[in-house]
Amino acid sequence: MSIPRNNKPVTLQIFSILPTLALASSIVFALFLWQGHKGFNLWDEGYLWYGVQRVMLGEVPIRDFTSYDPGRYYWSSALMSLMGDNGIMALRGAVAVFQAIGLFAGLLLIARSTTQRFKNWSSVYLLLSAVTLTVWMFPRHKLFDISLSILLIGALAFLIQNPARLRYFMCGMCVGLVAVFGRNHGVYGVVGSVGVMVWLAINSGNRAGAPRFIEGAGLWFAGVAVGFTPVLLMIWLVPDFAAAFWASIRFLFEVKATNLPLPIPWPWRAPFGSAPLGETIRGLLIGLFFIATVVFGVVAIAWVSWQKSRKKATSPVLVAAAFLALPYAHYAYSRADVGHLAQGIFPLLIGCLALLAARPPKIKWPLALLLCGASLWVTHISHPGWQCVASKQCVSIEISGDELSVPPHVANDVLLLWKLTDEYAPGGRSFIATPFWPGAYALLGKKSPMWETYSLFPRSEDFQREEIERIKITNPGFILVYDWPLDGREELRFRNSRPLIHRYIVDNFELLSHSPNPAYQIYMPRKPM
């Protein structure tokens, strides 16, 4: 299963850089035209959108509002500032640019894994690979995370291809920069890098220009520090950011989780006999993909290590994907749904596609088509463009100056927020939408009275008291509490996860008798006696 190294210049590669970039950009652009205006999510997409808006106004992620790590906010705000637009379509455009970079990197890795012996039909194979990768690129507010996983594969493959001193440093720098966008990706990059450096040390001999393990690790660590410099400078120079940053790390250790777990959808849990055949097949495939992320990691590491011990040439892309597969499988299993599987599956996809690229046609095409077909079957219903086409129920609504096609219940939620704002919070007065609608603030262009805009894990009493003080200062015109037990867990219902805040709301605000949804508890300030 070894793949001959292909060290020929880029101009001699089957697909040079520019055509691959053009292919990736064209696919992302076409996908954006098709479904860029479809769908809207007040939850996770709204969480990203609100944070970008606040950064554009000079606020700092983590310090001034709950957020992911800073990189994605500054990337998006920079591009949106160039566009002169803080709306939802501008945000989606900024994310699509990052998606195109990730897809380009993935296709380039696959293209350069094809040997001259099997160059015929390589353009068709690359197009098939592009479809396979693209259909897994969802949800769109998580395209940063998907692209980061691909870029890490590229960084490790770059080191493996020629483990020179400079490349150790550059690989570490890439890992550090990736951590600026997501600390979890930084951790995965560290784990994968350690595995690769150990692998490089096996039967390494005295290869010219290649440092020994300790020296290489030192150069790599120096690169990590340089890549992570933006956050280090924020810790040093931005007032109060250091305390907020360390508190965000400490909170992860307190809750002992990075996500709210879900039952793993093993293949034998597919709805056999109780659902339509298509849904049953999809459930079976989802379970198989979950298993494949782990099996690929274990088998691939064993294989490339055996090949290295025998001094056999192995594809750098396969080695890089092998050592990143298990770390990203952890992400997929941390909340075992299709959306998180999509964010953890790319080492498996790129590793398999790179491996098949150099196989004989009778092996290459059936397996590549099978992987593409299974991917389409699992993922197509998760794309907003398909959802609107299949349901035929999407309606048009204006959001931040852009006309979107959204499901009726989303349109009703948006209209409700506008109505409540006009009636109870006019003239720039603040409001609260909790615990799941951070997008409400971005939709209406207002600042959240509370630091925490997305309430998932339970919080301490001290934290809740601080939030109550913020509510007192801002005096919101209305409060919308989405009274719903997330994942069916009663302890995650707002009144149970934030009992002090809920008690303050009940004591100081009056529950309106009319609400379009029983789960929407709408409060307005009590009138003085």
Q: Cα-atom Rg, whole angstroms?
A: 25 Å
Q: Which H/E pattern describes the elements?
A: HHHHHHHHHHHHHHHHHEEHEHHEHHEE
Number of helices: 22
Class derived from helix and strand content: mainly alpha
Helical residue percent band: 55-70%
Q: Order of strands in the sheet with the most strands? A: 3-4-6-5
The number of distinct β-strands equals 6
Beta-strand percent range = under 5%
Q: Measure the end-to-end span.
A: 81 Å
Mean pLDDT: 94
Largest sheet: 4 strands, mixed
Question: Which regions contain 5 or more consecutive residues with pLDDT less than 50?
Answer: 1-15
Which descriptor suits the 3D outline? Answer: globular
Protein described:
It is a single chain. The chain has 529 residues and is mainly alpha-helical. It is built from 22 helices and six strands. It has helices spanning 17-35, 44-56, 71-83, 88-111, 122-135, 143-161, 165-181, 183-201, 213-227, 229-237, 241-255, 277-309, 316-334, 338-344, 346-357, 361-379, 384-391, 408-424, 439-444, 461-474, 494-497, 499-508, and strands spanning 395-399, 402-406, 432-434, 479-482, 509-511, 520-525. The chain has a four-stranded mixed β-sheet with strand order 3-4-6-5. A two-stranded antiparallel ribbon has the order 1-2. Helix 4 (88-111) crosses helix 5, helix 6 runs antiparallel to helix 13 and helix 8 (183-201) runs antiparallel to helix 13 (316-334).
